[in-house]
Every structure is written in structure tokens, then in C-alpha cells.
């Protein structure tokens, strides 16, 4: 018996020595021999790790994103899409019949401008909701930070489509104010309305919610830079325009407009560089910090067990849902934009209210529902990503893209906003940054943000359309 034990010990000792190579007097593991000996690890007790990750090419499937199926199952696919992720999101799917109705009335009765606008406005909500849901399902199958950024980008597609269609349909600058107001309105809707509702509903039943400083500080810092960049062309124009008669520098209106346009285009390029730095920071140099934050947030989810058991889409079904929702939302966006001019001119709705309030509310509906549901489930860091991320993307990517595309097709799309509107955005960034400073949120801060948004909506309704000197309002 003793000799057997001694022989086993000798064999183990010799195998351990064989797994190391001499390198400058240090024992280094031999990777080849270790790899060969890996099967011996099966002598130890084994179990199936439910949290292990599976590799599928470029995609990493977490347990949170596994569907347990492959391919396409039409009935199951429709059932999962209809149930969505929460009750509020599921109720939104009731509006799906508005989509064929909106398409039909656009072609059958194009003269009914109000009805076409209203039906397509409602039709964008369920299609954007499906886009947000499918993007969220796909995000769960990817690394945390990359998944959230991809989900935000998919939701921003609606906004980009609206901007591009508005620029294409613009005639003599009549739709430029709507685009500019929509840019600022998108930022305001995310910062005040969406974030405020997240703080409010997340704070119900809790003293406060704590979020990581890496998310809040980076987000508020980028928004301050974005707000500064968007303010410069407007401040340049307003200062020279108002002081033209009191200074010795003589500058014609045409020269001032051209200089402001050049500054806007240069600012757009610089903001795009800032967006690339933001992506590099999140996805490469500091991605581990955000991965840990979001990983911790997943375990804070109060509906985690329910979410793990919820039926999910397969990878192919995610792409199908994204394709269908993108087609529907783009079609509704095109039909909606075609009626904006009639609504503004014939029904007395100001272009500022249209762009600042009405358009952002519908284009960001899916993002808002997702963020509010996450805050309700105590995933406040995820909610912050879905509130601050779209605002950053609008300011650093979508707005510069609109300027550069307008430049490319010969449209004078610039960042010369109404000074009243841009001041509202900058003040909103300061207010939200102050609330984020302590790393905690509660329902009071959320309610105050929503009230500020309501004040802005009321003031915008009564804000008149500014017509340059020498022109008449049509």
C-alpha cells in the first residue's frame, strides 16, 4: 500500500516538473503539456455552470440572452414580441393596427393632412417600441457596454431618418428650424422628461437610488462639452447681429450668415471627433469599468429571476424584428415629415413646438419605456445609460451628421439655433448635472425635472416663429 502511494506521489511530482520550463532561473508553465493534460481535470467533480458564456463567432451569448432555441419559430416569435419586456411596453403593442391604417390613408386620402399626420404619429410608437425591444434582445447577446451602445444607436435610427427626410424635403430653408428644434428637443426629452420619470418611478418606495460615478460624471461632462459646442455658432451670430449698429466692424447679413454656417460645419466635424473619443473610451480603454457597473446592475434587478425565465428571441429572430420595425418606423417617419409643413402653416402649430416637443416625444418613445422600466426594477445605471447615451449621441453624432449631409446636398443646415432654445438646453444640462453630482437620485429630483420640461413645453407653444427682416411669413 505504501509503495503504491509513493509511486503515485513520484508520478505527480514528475508531471508537475514536466509542466514547467526553465527561463532565467524561473519555473514557467509549459502551455503545450498543460493543454495535453487538461482532460485529467475531469477527475474532479463537475457541474453545468448556468452563468457560463457561449461563443458564437463574433457574438457572446450570456445566459441573460439565451433563448434555448435556434432558427425561426413564427408563432413563438410573435408571442415573445407582443409580450415584450414589461406591461407598459406590452400595452403599447395594442397600437399596431394603426400602422396599416396610417399607410392606407396616406395613399387613399393624402388631402386629409391632419389625419395622415395623427395616424402616422401614433403608428411610430409601436414600431419604435418593437425596435427598442429587438435591440434590447440583441444587446443581451453582446458584451455589456457594446450592447447598450448598439441598442442606443438602433433607437437613434428613427431620429436620423427624420432628420434626413426633413433635410431632403426642405425648400429654401423652410424646414431647417424644425430640424434644429428637433435636435434640441431630443436632448431635452432625454435629459428632463425621460431621466425625470426614471428618477421618479425608481424613487417610489425607496429612499434613494445610487448610481456609479463613472456613468454620471462621464455623461454629464460630455453633455457640457456638447452644449458648449452647440451654443458657439448661436452666440457668434446673436452677438454680431445685435451689436452690428454699435461696433465699427461692418458685416453684411449675408456675410454673417455665411460665417456662421462655416463655424457650424467646423463645429460639426469637431463634435464627430468627440463622439469617436467617447466610443473609444467606452468600448476600449475603460470598457472594463462600465462592464463591471452594468454587471452589478444586472444583479440588482428586482425582476432578475423573472427576466431569466422570460422567453427570448433567437439571434435570427432579433435581426428579423429589427428589419421589420425599421421598415415600419422609416415609412411612418417619411409620411409624418411630409405633413409637418401643412400642420405648421395651416393649423397654427409653431415649428418650434413641433420640433422641440412633438417630434422628440414619438421618436424616443421606445428608449423612454426601456429606461423607465429599468429604473423601476432598480437598474438605475442601465437607465442612466439609456437617458444620457441618446442625448450624447444626438449632440455629438446625429446633429453633426445633419449638418454635414446638408452641406453635401447644398442645404444651409447649420447649428445657429434660436438663442432662447439653446439657452434652455444648456440650463437643462446644468440642472441635470447638479442632480447627478451626489451619485444618488430620488422621486423629488425626478418630479422637478419633469416639471421643468412642462414649463419648457408651455413656453414653446407660445414662442412665435422668427422671420428674418425683409421676409414675410407664409
TrEMBL record:
Say which domain of life the source belongs to.
Eukaryota
Identify a single GO molecular function assigned to this protein: calcium:proton antiporter activity
GO CC term, one of those recorded = endomembrane system
Kindly report the protein's main subcellular placement as a broad class: membrane
Where is the protein localized? Answer: Endomembrane system; Vacuole membrane
Q: Which Pfam families match?
A: Na_Ca_ex (PF01699)
Q: Any transmembrane segments, and where?
A: 88-108, 114-133, 145-167, 179-201, 222-240, 260-281, 313-337, 417-436, 443-463
Q: Where along the chain is composition biased (Basic and acidic residues)?
A: 10-23
Q: What does this protein do?
A: Has a role in promoting intracellular calcium ion sequestration via the exchange of calcium ions for hydrogen ions across the vacuolar membrane. Involved also in manganese ion homeostasis via its uptake into the vacuole.
Its family remark reads: Belongs to the Ca(2+):cation antiporter (CaCA) (TC 2.A.19) family.
What is the protein name stated in its UniProt record?
Vacuolar calcium ion transporter
Q: What species is this protein from?
A: Aspergillus carbonarius (strain ITEM 5010)
Q: What is the lineage of its organism?
A: Eukaryota, Fungi, Dikarya, Ascomycota, Pezizomycotina
